[in-house]
Amino acid sequence: MENNMIEGLHFSKEALSNRPLFLSKFNDVNIYVEDLGKEYEYEELFERLFESNLKIFSIFPLGGKDAVIKGYQTKGPCDVDGKMNIFIVDGDFDNLWDDQKTIAPNLIYLTRYNIESYYCSKEAVIKFVRRVLRCTRKDAEENAHFDEWQQHVRDEIGKLFVLFAIVMRYKPELPSVNGAGKFLDKAGHVIPEEYENYYKMVSKELGSIEPYIEEIYGKIHSKFPGNEDNKVLSIVCGKCQFDSLCRQLTISCHRQINRENFRSALISNCDLEPLNFLKEQVLQLMADGILASNSA
């Protein structure tokens, strides 16, 4: 039997699947997600996002996108008591190609690569730096260098993830996103030599990749909302963004950044506006479900 371990505890797939039987009665809606061990992150985000509009006592992780999609197929839109089931999966690179998506009313794709892709917002970073350095807001903003960081994410890491998107689509057997950390230097920038070596490896497999790059950028501009930064950031894994930002802050603040504390601070203070789509879809699904029930 396959087990999943969270902080020393073991949960079988059967145990994960059965948790809603005991806990769903405390929810207004059952929400299923991919990530094991991140329930508390979703809980805090949803508490902030929905405020008093929705009671969510427990989030149910299923252990990956395939498991969540299978969960949708087996559990259906409602549980045995008629309570709505909603399934949330990472956008990954699926948002670039609709044919990679499973389209279903109660299945929601994040508009960015993963949930961490929403964490690194300017205000949250400034608040964290101000607390760490015990300085004024002005000094915190100057030490954070957030705008410069976001620009190099767009210009450097964005280019790298465009290559990753090409590989995942056309040569998935090659290394890609899981090895993103090795491309970053101590300051969180992409190492030019690593990028060039990867570019050459992909070119060797696919031939000229400039048409592929143009294809990806075309999709980025047509499928994602917002300004240039927001569009490109939508395909960059949040874990890589977080890693890059931690490295930059360690240099610019002259302090070793406690990653766990930093992550918690971002979750508690990140800008929720990019997640409003999720709030709107969940509330609309629930409203539609209530209307359908009343008309039955």
Helix content: 40-55%
Instruction: Return the structural class.
Output: alpha/beta
Beta percentage is 5-15%
The beta-strand count equals 6
- End-to-end distance, in Å? 42 Å
pLDDT < 50 stretches: 1-11
Average pLDDT level: 88
- Main sheet characteristics: 4 strands, parallel
The number of distinct helices, counting runs of at least 4 residues, comes to 12
Radius of gyration based on Cα positions = 20 Å
The succession of helices and strands, N to C, reads EEHEHEHEEHHHHHHHHH
Looking across the biggest beta sheet, what order are the strands in?
4-3-5-6
Shape: globular
Summarize the structure.
The protein has 296 residues and is α/β, with parallel strands linked by helices. It contains twelve helices and six strands.
Descriptive overview:
The chain is of the alpha/beta class and 296 residues long. Helix content is 54%, strand content 8%. It has twelve helices and six strands. The longest helix is centred in the middle third of the chain and has 25 residues, at 146-170. The chain is globular and about 55 Å long. It starts with a strand and ends with a helix.
Task: Label this structure with key terms.
296 residues; alpha/beta; four-stranded parallel β-sheet; two-stranded antiparallel ribbon; 6 strands
List the topology elements.
Layout: E1 3-6, E2 9-12, H1 13-23, E3 30-33, H2 39-50, E4 59-61, H3 65-75, E5 85-89, E6 107-109, H4 122-133, H5 137-144, H6 146-170, H7 192-206, H8 210-223, H9 228-233, H10 238-252, H11 259-269, H12 276-295
Parallel strand pairs: 3-4, 3-5, 5-6
Antiparallel strand pairs: 1-2
